[in-house]
TrEMBL record:
Organism name: Cyclobacterium jeungdonense
Lineage, uppermost ranks: Bacteria, Pseudomonadati, Bacteroidota, Cytophagia, Cytophagales
Protein known as: GNAT family N-acetyltransferase
Keyword Acyltransferase in record: yes
Keywords: Acyltransferase, Transferase
InterPro entries noted in UniProt: Acyl/Acetyltrans_Enzymes (IPR052729), Acyl_CoA_acyltransferase (IPR016181), GNAT_dom (IPR000182), YitH/HolE_GNAT (IPR041496)
Pfam short name (any one): Acetyltransf_1
Length: 286
């Protein structure tokens, strides 16, 4: 007889197990990423438990109660095909009731499961990675690009919120404070035209989010980020329909790895402005 499976809120003591599950799948998140979820909205951080042992996880962050993002869906390989992922999804969706738009970034394997629960495809993303390049050669410095300071955060948030679909000032602030050297912005005639944030992962430095007025601005920001992080392995997630940006990324040494499918639950009331959203923050953050 199978042991009973139940869902409960994640506790700090669960982080060792959560990190082990993540490591098995080769994901890029760090312990600090898990702690962000627990700090922001612990009621949306769940574990599935069998015989007092956590065997699955899911997280969510709600932005202004307008837009919620589900991520970190992980199930121990020994306990798969027992309906655990569906149990976790049903519980997190229940806890997110009342939020207008709920989204996630699915793998192709997960897409079918989420469709059964009422999720619909919005668009595809491609994950690109680049190995560290140990070279002393650097690109010319772009005079319009500068480092972001914490005092710039309100200006960044003002540009970001309409594009993303909701204010995510706390998450942007977390990314800025934890990896300030990866935060760049581009201004022209005193006007903010775009920004890029980054974060250190366990396997790669993740570039994104990147919001820009147009693709030329986006390329300038990415190019300057590459100058700073030439000696680091990099990862980024970009919309699949970026027909000009993707070949440019490949020319910079990035290799296409896998597809992600951006999905929304039932209705997409707050779609944002996808054409100005060049690199996402990551599948677990949106």
């Amino acid at each position: 007889m199978d042991s009973e499976i139940y869902i409960r809120q994640m506790l700090p003591d669960d982080l060792d197990v959560a990190m082990a599950l993540k490591k098995t799948e080769g994901w890029n998140q760090t312990r600090e990423d898990w702690q962000l979820f627990l700090k922001q909205q612990p009621q949306f951080c769940l574990v599935a438990v069998i015989e007092n042992k956590p065997v699955g996880t899911v997280t969510a962050i709600a932005y202004q109660n307008r837009l919620a993002w589900i991520g970190m869906m992980l199930v121990d390989r020994k306990y798969r095909r027992k309906g655990i992922s569906k149990m976790l999804m049903r519980e997190i969706l229940h806890r997110l009731e009342g939020i207008s738009t709920i989204k996630l970034d699915a793998t192709p394997e997960g897409q079918f499961v989420y469709q059964q629960l009422g999720f619909k495809k919005e668009y595809s993303l491609w994950r690109f990675v680049r190995k560290a390049i140990h070279s002393l050669q650097e690109s010319d410095r772009d005079a319009g690009v500068s480092r972001v300071s914490i005092s710039d955060l309100p200006e960044l948030e003002k540009l970001d919120a309409p594009v993303f679909g909701a204010s995510r000032e706390k998450v942007l602030g977390h990314l800025l404070l934890t990896f300030s050297e990866g935060a760049l912005m581009l201004k022209e005639a005193g006007e903010l035209k775009g920004y890029i944030l980054s974060r250190k992962g366990s396997n790669y430095t993740q570039l994104g989010p990147l919001v820009a007025k147009d693709e030329a601005i986006a390329r300038r920001l990415i190019n300057q980020a590459l100058t700073h992080f030439n000696d680091q392995a990099l990862v980024l997630d970009v919309a699949a329909n970026r027909q000009e940006l993707i070949p440019w990324l490949e020319n910079q040494g990035f290799e296409q790895r896998r597809e992600l499918i951006r999905m929304y639950f039932q209705t997409n009331r707050y779609p944002g402005i996808p054409e100005k959203y060049y690199l996402i923050a990551g599948p677990e953050l949106g």
